[in-house]
Amino acid sequence: MAFDIDMIKKVYSTMDKRVTKAREIVGKPLTLTEKILYSHLWDGTPSKAFTRGKDYVDFAPDRIACQDATAQMALLQFMQAGKDNVAVPTTVHCDHLIQAKSGAADDLKRANDTSKEVFDFLESVSNKYGIGFWKPGAGIIHQVVLENYAFPGGMMIGTDSHTVNAGGLGMVAVGVGGADAVDVMAGMPWELKFPKLIGVKLTGELNGWTASKDVILKVAGILTVKGGTGAILEYFGEGAKNLSCTGKGTICNMGAEIGATTSTFGFDESMERFLRATDRNDIADEANKIKSHLTGDPEVYANPEQYFDQVIEINLSELRPHLNGPFTPDLATPVGQLGQKAKENGWPIKVDWGLIGSCTNSSYEDLTRASSIAKQAVDKKLKPKSDFGINPGSEQIRYTAERDGILKIFEDLDATIFTNACGPCIGQWDRSDVKGDEKNTIVHSFNRNFSKRADGNPNTHAFVGSPEMVAAIAISGRLDFDPMNDTLINEEGEEVKLEIPKGLELPPLGFEVKESGYLAPTENGKNVEVKVSPTSERLQLLDPFEPWDRDNLTNVKLLIKAFGKCTTDHISMAGPWLRYRGHLDNIANNTLIGAVNAFNKKTNFVKSQLSGEYGGVPDVQREYKKAGIPTVVVGDHNYGEGSSREHAAMQPRHLGVKVVLVKSFARIHETNLKKQGMLGLTFANESDYNLIQEDDTFNFVDLKDFAPEKPLTIELVHKDGSTDTIKANHTYNNAQIEWYKEGSALNLIKKENAK
Q1: pLDDT for 9-43, tens place per residue?
Q2: Catalytic position from the list 4, 62, 107, 160
Q3: pLDDT digits 0-9 by tens, 60-112
Q4: What whole-number percentage of the chain has pLDDT above 90?
Q5: How far is the C-alpha of 462 from the C-alpha of 447, rounded, in Å?
Q6: Residue 553 and residue 152: Cα distance in Å, rounded?
Q7: 645 is a catalytic site residue
């Protein structure tokens, strides 16, 4: 029986009318994406056609999911909204605060001890406001959502960039900052710029060593980390139908790495099989009643160039396995070519770790395909040359995999079975073989491989691949190993070759679990007390940000001019800093410490214009704040790519940064800045980035006239007294300008609720 089946039936009951009306208004056949978007308008039945990439549109998502690291700040904000209960079904999943070290049992116990205060807070606040709570160890948020909450044709948002994973079950599922989630929890619309559409036509069928992961690794190589920005990718074609549901989820999941708003697939037989296997026959039956609305119109897929802004075609039968990396998930290399490329670039050939799991690849099918390679190693007497780590995606998967003997195969190779949690994928890894300054290589089935992402070490070269390829590479211990063509020498000196991996889409005996880890909220939470200690290092009640004084911003000092890639990991690191995700002032001490200063190419070392001395970014910024001096951060392209963490916007705001001026933004981060009352601007002329000098002062001379589609004028005053005048663009609409005026979107919500 599905969660929220009545809500799902209600969504389906309106789709025919709304899709039919949208098709009439748009005046042409509709993609699946358009059907879902137009059937989830805040105003109900469509009344106008929207311009892709231009119009801001209010939507009504069906549900919300939050992981523990981001849920803290989201729920601290929601507590200020003056509501008794969340307006839409919402869940919290405790998967980020569990550090992988020695194994599941010990690691989970340690997490429950060290993060008890946070888990207790999340459980109590969930209970108070009608939120479903998934305990630590229950599983990784996106796998749990796919198994329990995702449904074809639905719309959901989540406070994690990989919420997009639910596209594997035909949803439009979008990662957002906590403030966006708070809006919807509070019964308000969710605003999104109507996305552009990229169609990905898949033909043929996967074979041999090629996996679903290789589809998105190939797409990432084509579109790069920013090629999907502002767009939804819609996969279609016979090749798409030939993929498993969890394989589709993998592809959608890593779409976050190309900046895509989300990705999705049309409802098909593999989705129906997955729904029925996860005890959701009721959803499958309802979906079958309206299945023509749960995929794109036939005319769209017959002539995709007429309906999508861009079309990519991939023949799965010809697709080769890839390993992407290091340091960026879009550096795509076919496996057989990686050895030469590694030698040319000085990447370490020896592989120290193979890590399988994460929200991207931790399904039953993933584990069985990887275990088929592990079983061969056992049978062929191959001793792995690399260490192995496994993170099952949920307790349901772990229990089923243990029942079916899959985990024992990995254990026979001395693999460490970590908790059903994110672990190394998000930097929650107490690595046993710390490498220090030594360059080293790991391979994993995760989604991101930014510098310092997995273990905090800038010398770790991380490569992304499918679980089965990770298993093969780890067994060989070499980055240049090509299992399709190369052989290995076993413990008896014999030459052996790994055979093609085999996996099971779904468990033949069905899924099974003894304790899922789910806690339903009480029906009436008014008497539930949520305690936050005023002396806590982990949690801190929020104070509202100050409203704009409606005057021009002047005498604004440069805090840092960031050079090159500046992700949310650079702006607000994860790893050990996750412990402070519920305490804004404490976590602000990591603000921009990973960003590279364009003037000295160092991290966390910027010049103070107050003292003339150099210091850490947060330290220098706190000096400016104490002196009442506003500051600006300058950045490069795709600023804020990566995780949806709104801390990357809240921390600079808390410390007194007023403006972020960059060449271009990643979508989620730009929205997060707006929500928190920051000015997020882009250079009208990208080359003006080069005009910024280390001791510059910025005067925003016409901010008083802040209006939609009106560029702002900035006077740059250099140390020698000379000046430059530049223009900056923005994408604020009238509603977003109101957020800025009030100091934050949350301030505006509170003001409206007080009326």
Answers
A1: 999 999 999 999 999 999 999 999 999 999 999 99
A2: 160
A3: 999 999 999 999 999 999 998 889 999 999 999 999 999 999 999 999 999 99
A4: 94
A5: 11
A6: 47
A7: yes
pLDDT tens for 604-644 read 999 999 999 999 999 999 999 999 999 999 999 999 998 88
Give pLDDT tens digits for 537-567.
999 999 999 999 999 999 999 999 999 999 9
HEC per residue, 680-717: EEEECCHHHHHHCCCCCEEEECCHHHCCCCCCEEEEEE
Residue type, 123: E
**Which residues are within 8 A (CB) of 189 and not within 5 positions of it... i.e. 6 or more apart?**
42, 58, 59, 60, 183
Q: Which of 525, 599, 515 is nearest to 559 (CA)?
A: 599
Task: Tell which residue, 400, 416, 422, 417, has the closest CA to residue 504.
Answer: 400
Token pair for 389: 């780590």
For this structure, is 96 an active site residue?
yes
Catalytic residue among 18, 40, 581, 645: 645
β-strands 460-464, 332-334: how paired? unpaired
Q: Catalytic pick from 18, 40, 93, 96? A: 96
The residue with tokens 């008794």 is 84
Q: Which two tokens stand for residue 3?
A: 């969660």
CA angle 604–643–429, rounded 5-degree value: 75
Q: For the stretch 254-287, what's the b/e string if a residue is b when 16 or more beta carbons lie within 10 angstroms of its beta carbon?
A: bbbbbbbbbbbbbbbebbbebbbbbebeebbebb
CA distance 717 to 715: 6
Q: Cα(585)–Cα(744) distance, rounded to whole angstroms?
A: 17
Assigned token pair, 703:
């901010």
Distance in angstroms (rounded) separating the CA atoms of residues 262 and 253: 8
Residues whose CB is less than 8 angstroms from the CB of residue 673 and which lie 6 or more positions away in sequence, other chains included: 640, 649, 660, 665, 679, 680
- The pair of three-digit structure tokens given for residue 529, joined into one six-digit string: 């007390």
Output the pLDDT for position 431.
92
Please answer whether residues 447 and 162 qualify as being in contact, where contact means their C-beta atoms are separated by less than 8 angstroms. yes
Question: Are the C-beta atoms of 464 and 323 separated by less than 8 Å?
Answer: yes
Rounded Cα distance, 659 and 653, in Å: 9
Residues in contact with 334: Cβ distance below 8 Å, sequence separation at least 6, in sequence order: 320, 321, 322
DSSP 604: S
Asked if 420 contacts 140 with a C-beta cutoff of 8 angstroms, the reply is: yes
Q: Which of 4, 62, 95, 268 is catalytic?
A: 95
pLDDT score for 1 = 65
Return the amino acid letter for 128: K
User: Residue 390 and residue 396: Cα distance in Å, rounded?
Assistant: 15
Burial 183-220 (b: 16+ CB within 10 A, else e): bbbbebbbbbbbbbbbbbbbeeebeebbbbbbbbbbbb
Write down the catalytic residue from 40, 322, 448, 730: 448
Tell me the whole-structure pTM to 2 decimals: 0.90
Active site residue 432: no
Q: Does residue 482 have an active-site annotation?
A: no
What are the distances in angstroms from CA 449 to CA 358, 443, 454? 12, 9, 7
pLDDT of residue 749: 85
Q: How many residues in the chain?
A: 755
Whether residue 160 lies in the annotated active site: yes
Catalytic pick among 363, 451, 466, 643: 643
Angle value at C-alpha 649, between 91 and 688, nearest 5 degrees:
145
CA distance 216 to 161: 16
Mean pLDDT over residues 645-670, rounded? 96
- pLDDT of 437: 82
Edge-to-edge strands, sheet with 387-390: 332-334, 322-324, 460-464, 440-444, 351-356, 387-390, 416-417
Contact 39, 153 (CB under 8 A): yes
Which letter does DSSP use for residue 305 in this model?
A: G
Per the annotation, the verdict on 68 as an active-site residue is no
Which structure tokens are listed for 481? 């190993």
